[in-house]
Amino acid sequence: DSNDDIEDVSLFDADDDISRRSKKSKIRHPVASFFHLFFRVSAIVVYLLCELLTSSFIACMVTIILLLSCDFWAVKNVTGRLMVGLRWWNQVDDDGRSHWVFEARKVSAQGGKTSSEAESRIFWLGLITCPMIWVIFAFSALFSFKVKWLAVVVMGVVLQGANLYGYIRCKVGSRKNLTSMATNYLGKQFLRQ
């Protein structure tokens, strides 16, 4: 797991120049881009409209959990690899110890990236925004005393938060401390202003 094999995929696209953005703004994997957002947004929409459409809590809960599970699998196994060239997984060795593996696509022979900037923006925007929405739903369910919905919302936070954590670890490197990386990034943004 050397950091030399990690491709620089823009997390927030703040460091890209305008000319490179215009050249690589085409979406190369439209089906992957669609499903990256479809399952995430569908789970949120079903959560918001569930009580209006049906009175069955179990049907709503199962539908939301299935959408969240499909989203977790699709993002972890397909869209992350295709859209930004990152993937992660956990493997257990013969001794029973768990090892997290983080990979990034190597830079191509021409020295350019193989993922487009538009796909990168779609990927990171969906990956960051949706867990934040589920956290807002968690506070809403907690403060409105809807305890039965809190379990569903916690599943949303956990499944989408796990993908967010895994892909941020892929992006910044598995050996780096995420707290120091976030502090350095925020410090740079503060100094720019």
UniProtKB/TrEMBL annotation:
Q: What is its main location?
A: membrane
UniProt superkingdom: Eukaryota
Pfam families in the record: DUF846
Q: Where does the chain cross the membrane?
A: 30-49, 55-75, 122-143, 149-168
Any GO BP: protein secretion
Keywords for the protein's UniProt record, in alphabetical order: Membrane, Transmembrane, Transmembrane helix
Cellular compartment(s): Membrane
Alphabetical list of InterPro entries matching this protein: TVP23-like
**What membrane topology is annotated for this entry?**
Multi-pass membrane protein
A GO CC term attached to the entry = Golgi membrane
Family membership noted in the UniProt record: Belongs to the TVP23 family.
Query: What protein name does the entry list?
Result: Golgi apparatus membrane protein TVP23 homolog
Q: Which organism is it from?
A: Gavia stellata (Red-throated diver)
